[in-house]
Amino acid sequence: MQYGLKILGTGGYVPPLTVSNEEFAAIADTSDEWIRSRTGIGERHFADGESSLDLAAQAAHRAMDDAGAAPEQIGVVVCATATHEYLFPSLACRVAQALGLPEQVLAFDLNAACSGFLFALHTAQCLLGERRDAYALVIGSEVLSRITDFEDRSTCILFGDGAGAVVAGLGDGGPTLFDSGAIGGTQVLSCPSGLTARNPFASVQELPQRPRIHMDGREVFRFAVDSVSASITRTLAQGGLAPGDVDWYVCHQANQRILKAVAKRLDIPLERFFCNIGHRGNTSAASIPLALDELHRSGLLRRGQRVVLSGFGGGLTYGSLYFIW
Ligand code: COA
């Protein structure tokens, strides 16, 4: 019997504040036309007082509701985030407490930037192998507006805040296939933490910098199209499948043109790539679960359909996960 991931429920949450492209044009040398045509983004949501715990707990609560899962059924909580307010405790521990999960839950955070949710879901699947009776709560949550450089017009227009979550268990509905990669390097895409390396007694101290995203957009674009296309192909090949065998592609929502280029390279109609970047922007680790939740709630996703989740991000990292919905 092949035990694969079974996603039992999804949830998503974005803070109510919406910021349009026109509002960016009022603070930076940009325009709605430039942003839409280069990225597909029309608006995004920003936290205005909400913490990453607020976003994550809302999404998790909705996923548990959708799955019909009780708190005592959750044995694992993995939270993918790079923007939690605390270095510790982890966001996963705080969500577990906020949702009244059992003390014996295994709860921790994982940071793989925009690939974080994929890696968290794969990690949860591995951990569920030890606890077949339990469910995993897997969350991607980001408040990117905290680390966005609003003086850099080429990056600030891309990002948004939000959280997405799934409740997953193991089932005998079919195999789950996974592929991942990590290249390393800080040149193309990074966000320094602001922590300094000087010893505390040194006469000259570095001033801590607020963390800000640095990005070489063209390089990221090239890396994204190459790595996502190749990773999807490798993932499917593990199961003797071809890109055309998949019903839905739910990819990291970074740029609509990246999705178009991947669809073209795989020779798949763009309609099979679910896209919600127009009203969400790039929400990093939250983007795939937010998109999956929207696809699920739209009624378009039917049980038994074949799904690929795929993404890329800081690290540089990438990954793909195939499963049966
Ligand atoms: N408004 C108007 N003009 C802008 C702009 C903005 N917001 N941002 C950049 N420009 C300008 C540039 O300064 C440049 O001007 P120049 O030709 O006078 O030098 C011009 O537009 C073209 O810049 P370029 O960087 O080549 O644009 P692009 O077509 O590559 O689009 C990105 C820029 C960032 C949208 C695109 O590279 C991208 O999306 N990359 C991937 C980023 C990503 O996915 N990041 C997240 C990773 S998880």
Structure overview:
- The protein folds into 2 domains: 4-171, Thiolase/Chalcone synthase (Peroxisomal Thiolase, Chain A, domain 1), CATH 3.40.47.10; 177-194 and 210-324, Thiolase/Chalcone synthase (Peroxisomal Thiolase, Chain A, domain 1, 3-Layer(aba) Sandwich), CATH 3.40.47.10.
- The longest helix has 22 residues, at 217-238.
- It is 32% helix and 24% strand.
- Strand 4, helix 4 (91-98) and strand 5 form a beta-alpha-beta unit.
- Helix 3 packs across helix 4 (91-98) and helix 7 (217-238) crosses helix 8 (256-266).
- It has helices at residues 21-25, 32-39, 52-67, 91-98, 116-128, 153-156, 217-238, 256-266, 277-280, 287-298; strands at 4-13, 18-20, 43-45, 74-80, 106-110, 135-143, 161-171, 177-182, 189-190, 214-215, 248-251, 306-313, 317-324.
- A 5-stranded mixed β-sheet has the order 1-7-6-4-5, sandwiched between helices. It has a 4-stranded mixed β-sheet with strand order 8-13-12-11, sandwiched between helices. A two-stranded antiparallel ribbon has the order 2-3.
- It is of the alpha/beta class.
- The structure holds coenzyme A.
Q: What overall geometry do the principal axes of the alpha carbons give?
A: globular
Could you give the order of strands across the largest sheet? 1-7-6-4-5
For the CA atoms, what is the radius of gyration?
19 Å
Distinct bound molecules: coenzyme A
How far apart are the termini?
18 Å
CATH architecture of the largest domain: 3-Layer(aba) Sandwich
Total E-strand runs: 13
The CATH superfamily of the largest domain is known as Thiolase/Chalcone synthase
Q: What's the number of structural domains?
A: 2
Give the mean pLDDT: 95
Helical residue percent? Answer: 25-40%
Helical stretch count?
10
How much β-strand is present in the residues? 15-25%
- Poorly predicted regions are none
Helix-strand topology string: EEHHEHEHEHEHEEEEHEHHHEE
The biggest beta sheet reads: 5 strands, mixed
